[in-house]
């Protein structure tokens, strides 16, 4: 038996050390890999060869407020997913605030192969039907504010566009070249090819952050380093590495400390208390037994209700933390309230449980 325990302890120690070494190796590899990846050598073909302004047909600013406007302005297509309305091949260099303004349509449409330069926004897309808009192969250059401004519109596909020197002075909303106030569902890259857009101000970053409450990102900018780490891989590593730490610690602590303590102390004490409790219950009257059952049910219901409140408030708090913007006062108020409710309900659960345990101990001593 002693030899068996000795071998088990040696085996668990070896496993623990192996896991710890593996974890340290993964951390060092990841750190070195990330640092090396960020030593970016610019891709010589980073900017797309989209049509330049002088290759396109000059056109005035476009204003679309309904599905019917696509027809009256003569844009081809029927507005279906297979045959969307198409705005294509225009040089829209204008002194108007917005080069292409689209708000309210419910039909499918695509903006492609255009050059847009305006005083404010290159293109504004607001309140369009879910998943009906596509913006591809355009150049948004020297717009006074954002190249693209999206408001209350979801599942828009934006990729293979050039964003060059837009919003140079920045605004109260931020300093990126695009703005997204959708529901965190717009995609700023091609999901199939994993290719996004060209951003002239990307610098040495591997992803491009879009201003706005949607907290969107172009995960695959066209001018990022070819050796940048895969965002999905980095997300997986950020989850796996902490789990490796926990497993390594448990593999070391449980066999060496927790198992002997449980075997020699916890289990005997539990058996002793269980026997005392059964003896005490056997001596109780029927009335006392019913009272005990009612108290136990009430305790369980209190814990369940507090647990539901705690989990719900935590979900709300975390959800808003991911989507709230610095200027969203209501969002931060909701985070504060839900966080407070989470703390109060969690502390209440702890206090109720401790009181229950203390009462049980007092009863057991009688």
Explain this structure.
- By secondary structure, the protein is of the alpha/beta class.
- Among the domains are: 53-224; 284-365.
- Helices cover 47% and strands 16% of the residues.
- The chain contains five helices and 17 strands.
- The chain has helices at residues 2-38, 67-72, 231-283, 286-323, 329-365, and strands spanning 57-58, 62-64, 85-88, 90-93, 98-103, 109-112, 115-117, 121-126, 133-136, 139-141, 148-151, 157-159, 162-164, 178-181, 198-199, 208-209, 217-218.
- The strands form four sheets. The chain has a six-stranded parallel β-sheet, with no helix packed on it. A five-stranded parallel β-sheet has the order 2-5-8-11-14.
- Helix 4 packs antiparallel against helix 5.
- The longest helix is centred in the last third of the chain and has 53 residues, at 231-283.
- The two termini are 41 Å apart.
- The model is unreliable at 31-45 (pLDDT under 50).
Summary keywords:
366 residues, alpha/beta, six-stranded parallel β-sheet, five-stranded parallel β-sheet, 5 helices, 47% helix, elongated
């Amino acid at each position: 038996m002693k030899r068996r325990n000795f071998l088990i302890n040696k085996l668990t120690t070896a496993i623990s050390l192996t896991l710890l070494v593996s974890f340290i190796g993964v951390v060092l590899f990841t750190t070195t890999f990330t640092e090396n990846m960020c030593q970016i050598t610019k891709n010589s073909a980073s900017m797309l060869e989209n049509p330049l302004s002088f290759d396109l047909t000059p056109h005035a600013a476009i204003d679309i407020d309904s599905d019917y406007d696509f027809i009256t302005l003569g844009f081809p297509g029927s507005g279906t997913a297979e045959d969307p309305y198409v705005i294509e091949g225009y040089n829209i260099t204008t002194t108007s605030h917005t080069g292409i303004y689209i708000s309210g349509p419910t039909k499918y449409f695509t903006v492609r192969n255009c050059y847009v330069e305006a005083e404010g926004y290159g293109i504004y897309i607001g309140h369009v039907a879910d998943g009906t808009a596509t913006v591809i192969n355009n150049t948004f250059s020297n717009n006074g504010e954002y190249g693209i401004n999206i408001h209350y519109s979801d599942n828009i596909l934006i990729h293979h566009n050039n964003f060059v020197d837009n919003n140079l002075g920045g605004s109260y909303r931020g300093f990126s070249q695009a703005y997204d106030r959708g529901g965190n569902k717009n995609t700023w890259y091609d999901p199939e090819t994993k290719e996004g857009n060209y951003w002239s101000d990307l610098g040495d970053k591997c992803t491009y952050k879009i201003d706005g409450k949607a907290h969107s990102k172009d995960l695959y900018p066209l001018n990022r380093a070819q050796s940048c780490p895969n965002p999905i891989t980095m997300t997986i590593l950020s989850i796996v590495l902490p789990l490796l730490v926990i497993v390594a610690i448990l593999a070391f602590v449980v066999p060496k400390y927790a198992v002997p303590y449980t075997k020699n102390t916890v289990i005997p004490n539990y058996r002793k208390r269980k026997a005392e409790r059964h003896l005490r219950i056997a001596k109780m009257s029927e009335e006392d037994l019913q009272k005990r059952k009612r108290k136990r049910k009430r305790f369980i219901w209190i814990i369940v209700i507090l647990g539901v409140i705690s989990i719900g408030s935590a979900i709300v708090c975390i959800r808003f933390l991911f989507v709230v913007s610095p200027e969203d006062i209501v969002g931060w108020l909701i985070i504060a309230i839900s966080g407070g409710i989470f703390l109060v309900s969690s502390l209440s659960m702890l206090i109720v449980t401790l009181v229950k345990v203390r009462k049980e101990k007092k009863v057991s001593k009688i």
